[in-house]
Write a structure and sequence with these properties.
Shape: globular
Number of helices: 0
Structural class: mainly beta
Largest sheet: 5 strands, antiparallel
Helix content: under 10%
Number of strands: 32
Radius of gyration: 19 Å
Strand order of the largest sheet: 3-32-31-30-29
Length: 352
């Protein structure tokens, strides 16, 4: 039975949650908030998954979803990590490509295929701020560590820096001819990196608003698509990693732009990368659903996890570094114990 909430219709959606290695003890039910603005014909459509991100305190996991051909609704789903229970579901027509928590956990930014970026209160789903649209889909959002600036990137070949308090654009970077896929910000807020569809990586000095490097994230191999999807800074900001559809995973020196090493192991396009909070482990996901773990200092491959059956775009380490969350186009989220390298939880919407 439907009931209105803040002028929107709220409906409980079918969910399935399985916790591996858990107990049979009952857990207290959380109040589920569902804000459903998706068209009626998409009500029973289950969406493929994109971004996965932990809240700064590690208690909440956020996942985005959706596609445009065939049409799938845009979804933002928040889970309680401890209980594996769903806390909030936000549904809309436009697929939601990306999400990021602010450093204090009070805001959650989402970007969608319609070019819209919104700031939500993750505890209620209430919209705090809607930013002016990009001309094309928003692929990536990231807060600066001080939470004062939100960075958005788009296939419209621009990166924009927004004042979080006012919603006004502060600055922008343009990369003509290059659709921008993913952005990353160094922990000291000094560096901004972005990867693009032509297989490039760009690095800017945010303090001086100056481009420092243009890197070859893709090796330019004949017959391989030159598209870079993954970028992440090491916690100390001294290096960054890029990943490309030609299976290339590369580590770079941030200051000089020098290639430090290629990381070998993927046999499919690299579509995500993340570095653990202690800087010791690099995780990368590919188009076959495989997640690789590397020793970040040496480049040694530690493990190859057959995590999913389809493209793995979502990777996130927990703040304490003990767990890794993965999300993929097989419509499944997994939480992995990094010590045992086994999944301890599987989360997902029921398929219609």
């Amino acid at each position: 039975m439907n009931r209105p909430l803040n002028g929107l219709f709220v409906a409980l959606l079918g969910l399935t949650v399985s916790a591996l290695g858990g107990t049979d003890q009952a857990t207290p039910e959380l109040k589920l908030i569902v804000i459903d603005q998706a068209p009626p014909d998409l009500k029973d459509v289950t969406s493929r998954l994109w971004t996965v991100v932990f809240s700064p305190n590690g208690k909440t996991l956020a996942v985005t979803a959706g596609w445009d051909n065939p049409r799938e609704p845009g979804e933002l789903v928040l889970w309680d990590v401890a209980t594996r229970q769903t806390k909030l579901i936000w549904r809309q027509e436009a697929p939601i490509r990306t999400a990021a928590f602010s450093g204090d956990g009070k805001l959650l930014a989402i970007g969608d295929f319609a070019g819209a970026t919104r700031l939500l209160d993750p505890s209620t789903g209430k919209i705090i701020l809607t930013l002016p649209k990009h001309a094309k889909l928003v692929n990536s959002v990231a807060f600066t560590p001080d939470d004062k600036t939100l960075v958005t990137s788009s296939f419209d070949e621009t990166i924009k820096l927004w004042n979080v308090a006012s919603g006004k654009e502060q600055h922008g970077f343009s990369v003509p001819g290059e659709g921008i896929v993913k952005v990353a910000i160094s922990s000291d807020s000094r560096m901004l990196a972005a990867v693009t569809w032509p297989g490039k990586a760009h690095v800017w000095d945010l303090t001086r608003r100056e481009e420092l490097h243009v890197l070859e994230a893709s090796q330019g191999q004949p017959g391989r698509p030159q598209i870079a999807e993954a970028v992440a800074f090491a916690p100390d900001g001294k290096s960054l990693v890029t990943g490309s559809w030609d299976t290339t995973l590369r580590l770079w020196d941030t200051a000089s732009g020098k290639l430090l090493r290629d990381l070998v192991g993927h046999n499919a396009p690299v579509q995500s990368a993340a570095i653990s909070p202690d800087g010791k482990t690099l995780a990368s996901g590919d188009a076959e659903g495989t997640v690789m773990l590397f020793n970040f200092a040496t480049g040694e491959r530690l493990a190859a996890l057959k995590a999913h059956t389809d493209r793995c775009f979502g990777l996130a380490f927990s703040p304490n570094g003990k767990h890794l969350a993965t999300a993929a186009w097989d419509r499944v989220v997994k939480i992995w114990d990094l010590e045992t390298r086994e999944p301890i939880a599987t989360l997902g919407r029921e398929k219609p």
